[in-house]
Specification:
The complex is a heterotrimer of chains A (about 50), B (about 240) and C (about 210). With about 50 residues, chain A is mainly α. In chain A, about 90% of the residues lie in helices and about 0% in strands. The longest helix of chain B has about 40 residues, at about 195-235. Classes of the chains: A mainly alpha (about 50), B mainly alpha (about 240), C mainly alpha (about 210).
């Protein structure tokens, strides 16, 4: 692979990597949101007695 | 108590279109890159390294679009006072900053291949993005250091408007700076684009914009859920 | 229209009178700019070009302006007067205009000392440079007043104001330095006029949104 090809591939990999990092962050966030939703649901049950 | 959760945070992005944007991003981006590598001719002067063009320029234009979208939402906030525009503006600008960073990185790689250095003050697009990157990073500093509330929303919105005005002003400034201060020896502006390159480029551009739209919707939904949960918590405490 | 102008004049006069009586901002700015110029001499190796020196002058101007900006709302904050100002029966944008005029006067006064000092320490100045400085003052004061109001709402206002201000100051520096050293300063001066016009209008129009509680 020539130098030019290496760099071009690297640039496209940067995009791919960024998208995957973003997906990872969103996945973590969704997990956290699910936990919080469970907490709030529990609190609602206790409070409203169901 | 007239402020229901819905009215406070408004209606989010319509769930009907979510898959549409994602599918469009997938098709256009993969298709565009395929066209770029398999179909478009190789550039006579720059050779294979010109292929970065199909990545770097769509990312740059998408960043501009995000900043513009954020400024539009900011304007809506100031106009109507509806709180939901704050989250939308903030998310759009966050997208813009991410794409702006990607612009700088891919631009730097392109500079390395073309001229052997990771940075050059002669490449106008790169310098312009540095200025915008600094500006919008300051936007985030503004948000982090101000307590949440209407004040922060309005201040952020006004600053977002300043940003979008700064784009053409800086463009002009960097342009005239090039004449005597920092001679534009290096530039990527070449001769007219062959039509195949243009087509491939446009598909990549559409794909990148769809990608940004998809990520924007996902992030916005996440933020809105966050805000609603926080509100629920307060109501139950 | 006359009432508006009257409000603006009153506000500007208030700021200037306050400064005359307390004398805390302007002397600091003057001392700062002369100290900065002195440091620049030591920072520049001998044989540095006049162009480099001119560039440094503009840095001194920008940072001296920043010093003055941090004080822009200080008096109101300390006296708890800001709420009173906002409740006053005048157009909010009049507050902006009054403050901007006051700030411009401060900057001009600081430069009346800075520019001769520079000419003394380094090299003589052209009238294009003076014109550029005047135009830059207007632009800096315009956005500075607005940004000071934005920063005043934050928890770290002294830290935030420079961060908000500096990216916006970059075009001013480009225009200023360009006008100072180019053989044809016209386009740079024209650019500064454009900058001033655009950002002054934007600041004037958006000030009311950042000053209300």
């Amino acid at each position: 692979m020539s130098t030019a090809e290496k760099y071009v591939t690297g640039a496209y990999l940067v995009l791919l990597g960024s998208i995957l990092v973003y997906v990872l962050i969103i996945a973590l966030k969704v997990g956290r949101l699910e936990e919080e939703l469970a907490d709030v649901t529990r609190a609602a049950r206790e409070k409203l007695g169901g | 108590m007239s402020t229901s959760l819905l009215s406070r945070h408004g209606r989010g992005p319509s769930p009907r279109f979510g898959p549409l944007f994602a599918a469009a991003a997938l098709a256009l981006l993969v298709g565009g890159f395929a066209l770029a590598f398999y179909w478009a001719p190789e550039d006579a002067d720059q050779g294979f390294s010109q292929k970065i063009f199909y990545l770097h320029v769509p990312i740059a234009l998408t960043a501009y679009a995000c900043f513009g979208w954020g400024a539009w939402k900011a304007l809506r906030l100031l106009w109507t006072g509806e709180r939901r525009y704050d989250l939308e503006s903030y998310t759009a600008i966050h997208m813009g900053l991410i794409f702006g960073l990607l612009t700088l990185v891919t631009g730097s790689i392109w500079a390395k291949i073309s001229w052997g250095q990771w940075w050059t003050w002669g490449e106008r697009q790169l310098v312009l993005f540095l200025i915008l990157f600094l500006f919008y990073s300051s936007y985030f500093m503004l948000r982090y250091s101000t307590d949440p509330g209407p004040r922060r929303e309005r201040n952020s919105a006004v600053y977002a408007l300043f940003g979008v005005v700064l784009i053409p002003v800086s463009f002009l400034a960097v342009r005239i700076a090039g004449t005597i201060l920092h001679p534009t020896i290096f530039t990527h502006e070449g001769a007219d684009l062959p039509w195949q390159m243009l087509v491939a480029f446009l598909v990549c551009l559409a794909g990148m914009l769809s990608l940004a739209a998809t990520l924007y919707r996902v992030e916005l939904t996440g933020k809105r859920i966050d805000a609603s949960l926080r509100e629920l918590r307060e109501l139950l405490a | 229209m006359n009432a508006y102008a009257g409000d603006v004049a009153a506000l500007a006069r208030k700021d200037l009178l306050l400064e005359v009586r307390s004398r805390d901002t302007l002397p600091a700015m003057l001392l700062f700019v002369v100290s900065a110029l002195t440091i620049f001499h030591f920072a520049l190796p001998s044989g540095s070009s006049e162009r480099a020196e001119t560039g440094l002058l503009w840095i001194a101007i920008v940072f001296t302006a920043l010093l003055g900006l941090t004080r822009a709302f200080a008096a109101e904050r300390e006296g708890g007067v800001l709420d009173g100002l906002v409740l006053a029966p005048c157009d909010r944008s009049a507050i902006w205009l009054g403050k901007t005029i006051g700030l411009t006067v401060f900057l001009v006064l600081a430069e009346l000392v800075a520019l001769p000092a520079f000419a003394l320490f380094f090299h003589p100045l052209s009238w294009d440079l003076v014109a550029a400085v005047a135009l830059a003052d207007i632009g800096i004061a315009s956005i500075g007043t607005l940004l000071a109001a934005i920063a005043a709402a934050s928890r770290a206002r002294e830290l935030l104001l420079p961060l908000l201000f500096l990216p916006l100051a970059i075009p001013v520096v480009i225009g200023g330095v360009g006008a100072s050293i180019a053989s044809d300063p016209g386009s740079f001066l024209g650019f500064l006029i454009l900058y001033d016009g655009v950002f002054a209008i934007l600041s004037w129009a958006s000030f009311e949104y950042v000053i209300t509680e």
